[in-house]
Each structure stands twice: as structure tokens, then as C-alpha cells.
Amino acid sequence: MLSRRALLSAPLVIAAQQRKSLKIVALETDLTIHPPRKPTYDALQTLGVNSGTVTLRLRTDAGITGWAQSNFGAIEGGPQALRALLEHEVKPLILDQDPALPKAIRARLQRGLQYQGLTGLTNFALAASDIAVWDILGKHAGMPVWRMLGAARDRMPVYSMCGWYYDNDNDLSQYKAQIETALSQGYQAIKIKTGKYSLADDERRIRLAVDLAGQGRRVMLDANQVFNRNEALRRGRLYQQMGVFWYEEPLPPHDMAGYAELAAELDVRIATGENLYLKHQFNDLIQRRGADIVQPDNRRAGGVTEWLEIAAIADAAGLDLASHGGGDVNMNMLCAIPNAIYMESSGPQPRMIDGEVTAPETPGMSTEPKGK
Ligand SMILES: [Mg+2]
């Protein structure tokens, strides 16, 4: 029988054991180069020809492994460069760190990597590290990350990025088929690319998308940075007459003053942010009232830690947030953000009901490949 003293101290011993800090003991990476597929185009880029994925694993002394993937839709050498950053720059800084301190890890990595600049691929590496850290924390707590962060919801409205430019598609038959497929999959909102050709061509593509979507469904446009201020305004006036829900990335991301002018001139919602890095750039855009909807990307904006701060700055300014890209990492973050309105997506969604996808219940980020 335990003494009275032992009985009294038992809960403290258990609490101390539970408090035992985790330690990151190994960083591993894999590189997957995907075979070229039929290219798709937006107004700026060719996607699908050079694509790859870098997988990051952070192993801990408790046997929990945090996973993250960073996907590249273009840039031939991008995955190799990111892998080198993780292996040679991040690894020596993150080993022996406690994953329960993600903000301390972020500060340590930012201090360690600032010499090369905290944007570009450097921030892809920092974001992947942060996502893997949150995967560890969720697994350790036995909860999906969205629940652990204090969720605002358990499902997210999604839209399908389906209306690309294709080779040999002057009659828009491929474009039309892709939109019809997305609608048949249950999406209540679709996004199409604009701006590659003339204003008349844009009008034709938008008209077709709006007609196919019909009453009650939304159509978003994405110009992928290609206009100057005059052209962005000229086209935006037509776009808003056609009743689209948002007008995305009309200008290059650095033209914050141009975004502010455009947002003031047009009634249609201006959406941008997929090419902004860290909360400081978002804060600049938001302070200038340069967007109605902010769109962080989970590689460029930073990981979970940075996203929550960006979302709070946007929320305080009365702005909505939509993710650039989809998947379970975005879902975990978006469900924790009160002003999130959409997750970008494409293809069939097994957990979609009435245009919304339910959040995963797997502990962590759901970044670990199934069956591993
Ligand atoms: Mg975009």
C-alpha cells in the first residue's frame, strides 16, 4: 500500500512525466520528381512540366515524427535547392530543439537564415519546418491540429481551380469540360484563369463559366500578376459587370500602391497574397487597404505559426482570408481562423457536403502519407 505521502505526490510525478519536453533528434528529407504531365497555363506560367515534392520528417526522442511536404508546380531545380536548404541550413539549427516552442524555433531559424533573405525558398524551408513541428504537437496531444489551435469551425467551403488555359483549345472545349467536371463533383464555386489574351477573349471565357455555373454558384477570376495598373483597372471594370465573386492577383505582388488604387476604384473584391512572404508583407498590403481577401500560401507566407498571425491582422482590418492551395495542412489552419471563407481545391473531394469539406480527425496535420 502506498504511503500517504506517495499518494499525494503521485499526481505530481505523472504531471512531471507528461511535461517532459520533447526533443527533435533527426531531420530527414526525400525528393520526388514527378513525370511531366500535359501542361496547363495561366497568364504567367506553365505548370505540370517541371514538378516535384520535397518531404520533410522531423523525428523526436518520444518516437513521434512530424511530416511536411512542399510541392512545386514549376521550377526545375526548386525541389533540389529546397532540400539543400533543409539539410544544410535548417538541420543544424533545429536538432535538439523542443517542438512545443514553435515560435522560439521560428525565431532561431529566422536569425540563422537571415543572411540569405527570409523570402523565397528560404521561407519554403522555414514553413515546412513549422508545419512538421505542429504535426508533432498534434500527434503528441492526440488531436488534429485544427482542434488543438482552438477551432472556429469543423468544415470549410471549397472552390475548384478548374478553368485553365490548354494547348489547342481555341474552341474552349477542354476548358468547358473541366468546368463541367468540377460542377459535377459538387463544387459550388469555381475559379478560372484570365488575362493571357485579349479582353474579348476574357469576356468569352467568363461568360461561358458564368453560364455553366448558373444561379447560386460563384465564379472567381485569377490574372496571375500580368497587368499594369491601367490594364488591371480597364479589365476589372468589365469583370465586375459580369458578376464575378473575386478578381485575383491583377498586379505583381510588390505593387502594394497599385493594389490600394485598384481596391479603391473597383467594387469587385480584390484577392491577393499567394506571393507574399511573412506577416510583415501582409501587414503592408492590409494597412494600405490593398485587398478585400488575403490569400496566404503555406510555403511562402510561412507555416502555421505565421498564418495565425496573418489571419489575425486581416481579421482586425475586417478582411476575409482564403487559402492559396488546398489539402489537409490548409484545412487544419483554415478551420482555426475565424475570418476564413474558402479553401482552394481541385478534383474530387471525398469529404465534401454541400460544397464544404469536413476537417480530418487524424491527430496532427494529416501530412504523414497513409500506410507509413
Ligand atoms: Mg492565384
Short recap of the structure:
This protein folds into two domains: 19-141, Enolase-like, domain 1; 146-358, Alpha-Beta Barrel (TIM Barrel). Helix content is 41%, strand content 20%. It contains twelve helices and 15 strands.
What does this structure look like?
With 372 residues, the chain is an alpha/beta fold. It has 2 domains: 19-141, Enolase-like, domain 1 (2-Layer Sandwich); 146-358, Alpha-Beta Barrel (TIM Barrel). Helices cover 41% and strands 20% of the residues. It contains 12 helices and 15 strands. It has helices at 4-19, 78-94, 102-113, 120-141, 145-148, 173-184, 199-213, 229-241, 256-265, 278-287, 304-316, 328-334; strands spanning 24-34, 40-41, 46-47, 51-60, 65-72, 155-163, 189-193, 218-222, 246-248, 269-272, 293-294, 320-322, 340-345, 352-353, 356-358. The strands form 3 sheets. The chain has an 8-stranded parallel β-barrel with strand order 6-7-8-9-10-11-12-13, surrounded by 6 helices. α2 (78-94) crosses α3 (102-113). The longest helix has 22 residues, at 120-141. The radius of gyration is 22 Å and the shape is globular. The two termini are 44 Å apart. The mean pLDDT is 94. The site of magnesium ion has 5 residues, from loops.
